[in-house]
Amino acid sequence: MKMLRDFTSWIFQQLVRRRVRLTLGQNVKVHWPRLMKIKGGALAIGEDSIVNAKIDFDGSEGLISIGRRCFIGASHLVCRQRICIHDDVVISWGVTIVDHNSHSLFWTHRRNDVLDWAKGHKDWTNVDIRPVEIHEKVWIGFGATILKGVSIGEGAVVGAGAMVTRDVPPYAVVAGNPARIIKQIEQSESNGTEY
Fold it and tell me: Which domains occur in the chain, in start order?
């Protein structure tokens, strides 16, 4: 038990050195080796959650908030501003969630991106950045991609491999590229038996 406490203490020290602000609820299970590469940003994980995701902050002001009783499989969260995942969300493996475009749409604005990276910085001035919000009881299937500015409503289901570029209403099932509503779940059904 002492060895586990020492390891956890060492992990926290490493994250603090990388300027990561970390808040963990009780009974959280985290895949520490994936978190060891985080630099900057703030990460909050609610109690009883399991997080196996790779997390990248593209700036020290980024915030990723994960609610209680969430499961995030071997997926990738990329945050410049804010990704908010509410309680009771299940995210499968291979899912990508990103709150920005990474580059400007216009060549004149991105022409120096590679040169800037070589110098260890990036100009975010002309990059579209908008927060992502995933509400309670959402299920996201494997290989889905959730892009900037998207809000996924309570109880919604995102099908495997879906490319979500627009908001998803509560209790909707979406699939495809781009994701479209293929079914609406009655809220009363969501608490009952599946057929």
Answer: 2-190 (2.160.10.10)
Please tell me what DSSP assigns to residue 168: B
Under 8 Å between Cβ of 59 and 109: no
- Give the residue with greater pLDDT, 9 vs 142: 142
| Non-local CB neighbours of 73 within 8 Å, separated by 6+ positions | 52, 53, 91, 92, 93, 94, 95, 142
Q: Residues with Cβ < 8 Å from 121, sequence gap 6 or more?
A: none
Mean pLDDT of 49-74: 93
Rg of the chain in Å (alpha carbons): 18
**Cis status of the peptide bond prior to 178, with omega within 30 of 0:** yes
**Shortest CA distance to 62 belongs to which of 131, 158, 133, 145?**
131
pTM of the model: 0.84
Identify any residues that bridge with 145 across adjacent strands, giving them in sequence order.
96, 163
Closest CA to 138 of 173, 178, 176: 173
For residues 55 and 96, the answer to whether their CB atoms sit within 8 Å is: no
